[in-house]
Design goal:
Largest sheet: 7 strands, mixed
CATH topology: Rossmann fold
Low-confidence stretches: none
Shape: globular
Structural class: alpha/beta
Mean pLDDT: 93
Number of helices: 8
CATH architecture: 3-Layer(aba) Sandwich
Number of strands: 7
Number of domains: 1
Length: 200
Amino acid sequence: MTDDPTAGSTEWAQWRKAVDLDEYESRWDRIAEQGANPHGEVDFVMQFAPKTALDAGCGFGRVGIELTARGVDVVGVDLDPDLLERAKRRAPKLDWRLADLATVVIGRQFDVVVVAGNVIGFVEAPNRADAVQNCARHVAPGGWLIMGNQLKSSWPTIAELDEWCGREGLVPAGHKAGWEGEILADAPDYVVTVHQRPSS
């Protein structure tokens, strides 16, 4: 496993070079301090009442830490060692793993696998299907794969996300325009996809 934080893809390398990580991390803290809710993803996920969750592309741990605070047993995975170190500083007792979503093997399945923050779009294009399918493999029977992604011209389409999930036996259970469950209109620029592994 590489220690290069820009190894994920060309687009990820560009994002990393353009972003001040201290500013990025503190942005969410400021949202909370100002009385707003920085945890829309977690609110959405908790509708599914998970007891266990894989935070896939966990970054500095914002989603995984909040899920843990709400009683969920969480494993977090990310390919960026700098962001993962921040997650470990914020929550040293959580299970954080440096790994590639396309190949990681956790050795267990989860009630929910959540892939927030445009993670799949930042995966190198040839590896996106593998990343989604590997996330899907970690979904337990009756469980859910929940992904949030911008719909950029060069990023995965809703149809592609559905197809990749379907290859691993997951079925579409809803497409929303955001983490507050907004109805998906024509020509959306963002989607939250929900796929379920049938119980039997």
